[in-house]
Amino acid sequence: MKKILLSLLIIGTCVNYSCKKALLESPAYTLNQQTLFTDAASAQLALNGCYGDLASQGVYGQALFMISEMGSGMGWLKKTGDELSSLNIIASGGGGFVPMLWNGLYQTIGQCNIFIDAAQKSSLSNKANMIAQAKFIRALCYYNLAFIYGGAPIKTAPTTPETTNVAKSTKQQVVDQVVADLVAAEADLNTTQADASVPSKVAANAMLAKVYFLLASADGTGSPNWAIAEQYGNKVFTILNNNIPLESNYASLFDVNNRTSKEAIFKLNYSTLGLNTAFNKGSWAFSPLSSTLKGTHFDVRGASRAFYSYFKKQHTGDPRIDATFFHVSYPNASTGAAITVYPTVTTYVQTGYPFIKKYYDPNQVGQISSKTNYVYRYADFLLLMADVENELGKSGTAVTYLNQVLTRARTSVTPAAAQPLNLTLGAQAPTPALAGQIVDQAFLRQFIFDERLFELFEEGHSFMEARRRGISYLGQITARHNAQADAIAGFSMPANNWTEYLLPTSTDGLTKAMLMPIPPGELNTNTALTIKDQNPGY
Amino acid sequence: MLNATDYATYINSQNIAGGTVPSYYFDGNDVRFYQTGTTGAAYNPSDPTTYSVVQPTDWQNVAYHQAKSENVALNASGGSDNTTYYLSGGYKNIQGIAVGAGLRLGTFRGSLISKLTDRLDLNLVVGGSMGRNTMQQGGDVLRGTGNGNITRDALSSQPFILPPNAISNDENRTSVYSWLNDYDDITTNGNFNGSLNLKYKLSNVFNYSVRVGGVNSYSDRGRWFGTSLFPGYNNNGSLGITNARNTNYTIENLLGFNKKFSPVFKFDGVIGATYDTYSTLVNNYTGINFNIYSLRTNGLALANSITVATPSQLDYQISSFLGRANFDFFGGKYLATVNFRADGSSKFQKDKWGYFPAAALAWKLDQENFIKKINFIDQLKLRVGWGITGNQSISPYSTINQFGTSNISYADQNGNKLLAATTFGVANPNLKWETTQSDNLGLDFAFLKSRISGSIDVYRKTTTDLLLNKSIPPSNGFTSLLVNEGSLRNQGIELSLNGEVIRNAVVKFSLSGNIAVNRAKVINVGQPIGQFGANALSAFSGSAIGQSFYQDYTNIFAAGYAPGMFYGYKTAGIIQNLSELNYTASDGTTKSTTYAIIAGGGAPKVGDVKFVDVNGDGVVNANDRTFIGNPNPNFTYGFGLNFSYKQLTLSTTFYGVSGVQRINANDYFEDQTIGNSNIKQSVYNNIWTAQNPGNTTPRVGASSITVITDRIVEDASFLRMSDVTVSYTLPDKITNKLKLGRTSLYVTGKNLLLFTKYTGYDPEVNSFGFDGLRQGIDWNGFPNSKSFILGINVGF
Q1: ipTM greater than 0.90, yes or no?
Q2: Were both Cys, which of B246, B318, B403, B553 would link to B542 (CB 3.0–4.6 Å)?
Q3: Contact indicator for A366, A376 with CB cutoff of 8 Å
Q4: Under an 8 A CB cutoff, do B210 and A13 touch?
Q5: What pairs with residue B268 in β-bridges?
């Protein structure tokens, strides 16, 4: 017995004696910075984290296209206290997508900051290119912050407990950060990439051109930013030997099996096995009831009647209309029976709208789709360069770029469609809706503005496109919306969930609609912000 | 909640306000449903294909039932002079009030106390349990997600079974039946524990004891969502499997000392060292996309997609050195205790160790001659104490940056999943022990042959370096950070009294009562003064409670105020006349107040909720938020009585809380006139109309209020009869004949009476009890059940 006691005593003493070591933490089921950044393959996992957050539903997988398309002035959302499509949202409103996008962008920025910091400290041989990829991703996040929320806090280093409250920078400072990241990324990215899901020098230069194009658009004619946009854009032409690749068929861009389109400048990939929020929620969000065999759908989001009608009026018979909308009718996926929608249905019911088609995935299961998302494609680039050249007085070059996009649209079907016809500088516009107008610089300014809305609708750009030339151009969209003949009856029925909102047309209303509000979650917790930092009108 | 006819009339009034045709038509007692919003034929009373007759259903009756439970236990004890034993076993089968919920649990426990030698004592305890728990509470009970739960569906669903011609949408596709038929939440668990204590008497003065103990438990949970519930619908069947393993070992070494130095001075004490280690490992698997649903929680192998999450490991160790000394002067008339302990926790990185001294003095006044002379005093003891305690109840690894692969993934260009490593949060290497200093003064007393006894205590507790999971700006990429920040003071008085009114051989009757008043106050929060709505405060905010609505924080922690005060918008009834909104603008003109916080608030209408423009600037926005309630009670109290007459005993206890408020977040659905949710009868009766201009409920068609307002703050004071028991002990004559020991029969009722004005199920619900930054909120709180227990205790 004494022996037992003695041995217990020894155990007790030993345990206590070694307590210093016994109180050290060593989590065994997780990774840490040291283990992750020792070789390229494991560091790639952390870089995938940056891509994964960017592609997740917090950003490109859902929140961005919800804000961008539903909040553009050209989208329609069922009224359930979710007033995103009214362009008159309240700071705590927007159906949760306003904070979701903000948080998703900063979550991605946070992972990029951690990655860049750790990779810089590591001795990885290929770290320059990996850091450049992370900076490109970070630039995309700040780009969306600057042009959707305006000024925002800038964070470029991993958060520590001491650095949680960062004051708001101006929109110009946020743009400067985007430019700094893109310029730094451009230096270390590969010139081109076989697959556009990894950014290249082409992607970085094309993004730089787009940033200056947006700044110049807001400044208007005579802005020095037009020339800077041209300068970066021309680098893209140079690298590609003036050969800008477009898909021959517009609709094939949005074929679920087309995962590696040559038209992509930068795109994001999805898997049906994606974890948590790592799948594309677009097909669930937009495809109408019974349009897939195994997917879940609700008829709660579509295009506004006004935008659809305007597109059809400007380019009657344009093949892009069939690729962009479920309109007139579509087949029930299980029975084949036709389900009629707008413009066949004109009353204020579930099916009274044209539905969004570019995200449609016939293989959707539940909410899950693995369809590729385009962040940026060459038709977008050509149209922006057309606007740039037109503003720089080279309207002939502008028409050349523009006609490439119009030709592709027209020849997407065999035989080629009647619309949209190519333009000729100095001649009359060939479009019946524009009959009598001469193609000149002023004409092209308006034409390209509209053309970008048509070509890029539903792809996560509409919020910025509708606002890039300020409240007078945004006012065109809202005025057209409010004048849509068969929607007027619907505006007066506020409590019918299936009607449309009357959109703001006053200077105050349009000024408010130019930016999304800083979410309450940020204003409430960030001690470096005050209510004065909130955007106008909120 | 409304019945089918009232509900149909209510929804029709929404349709009319929205300019659509009514959804419901009446024919005698029948309510006929017509699916609006389609291009089908119009309602035609003589064509049954255009409508369907609804079947009224009280969903609360479907979801909840009268449950039966049984509980049996068997104990045995015995032994010899040197050795005693105790054995017990029990079995419980408890049904929950939600249909399908229940618990089965078997337990055993045994102990052995033996004097091995004159100097060595042994105490061995072993125990264990095995159980199976079936829950029916639903998905994400807490946040405002689409997953919902049975409580919400039982209240908010239309009060009838949805007709087959109804178009299913996101609001109506889940019903109570979905939960009953298509949901399983089954946990099996087991636990084994044991401890061995050896005490060795070194001398008459010193003894040494060593105790080793351990607990080993497991808990395996499966949750199945079939396709009629959102998680199942969205994923074509969804199964979550959680396997948790817990172990815990303890080793204690204590050296005791005990000596009487003189007739007037005794001293005893102990010094020791202890070590505790805790390990938890939780494995999570998620299976989605099923072709066959029938195996439910057993069907992980049938999932087309299985995800293995990074296991959740929660290991920590605590090492302690402690010392205690008790001094006893003049036969216990003056007592002093001094304690000291040093605790080291593995959870902290830089400051592992906390040092916690304590001291107490007691004076037994009743042993003083000047008190002994007073006849009616039997006991009088004055106590004074001071001490510091520590708290380290945070998650392990909070000071270490970790990466895992289960937050997010990416994909390659062919659609193959790629693993992605991301960090879990912002680590804080500076964390240390939270400490509380307590000061207290107390008096124990007994008068009149102890027929009146009681105690009174005054205390003050000051907690500093509070360990808080603080909300941080989302611009950090994460929304919370664990910090040591701020200090909090609780001070109060507690009084308890017992009185034996009648005390004789046949009848005994006693009463007891207690009351406690506590005042809590935030001393500082370590933040500069900033603008919080209408007030400049040094404060931090609580967490947002909802996702798509109620996105604002609800609680505020402001220096100088009680912790967790409710913060939001003030309202003043319903707008009866638009001139009520007039205010004088800075330019001297009269303008109308606008509301920036609700849709359509640019031009409020008669019949809308009227908000108070606290700062008077003509617009109600985030600058008008202010204090709207307090979740801390004024006082709590309890009382009970015990009456016995011969073999019969009646006892009951009541307890209550007074002056407490609660956020009833359920009012988002039940108190607003929006959407298809069913509403309370009282709300329906008071809907504002031009003919019936009430001042409590807005008009049909008013915008939904998604911010926190005083409309959802309710008085949650209550008095509850928690327990009433009648028992009868068989007389010895009978038990002797039956050769039984002491045997009694009893009936107990629990929660039979509740007095409250609170309109939710239960004024005691605290839905976010686990989160200190969201307090006093009822979000889909589960009803508290009343129960009757019939029991028998038999001794052999």
Answers
A1: yes
A2: B553
A3: no
A4: no
A5: B258, B326
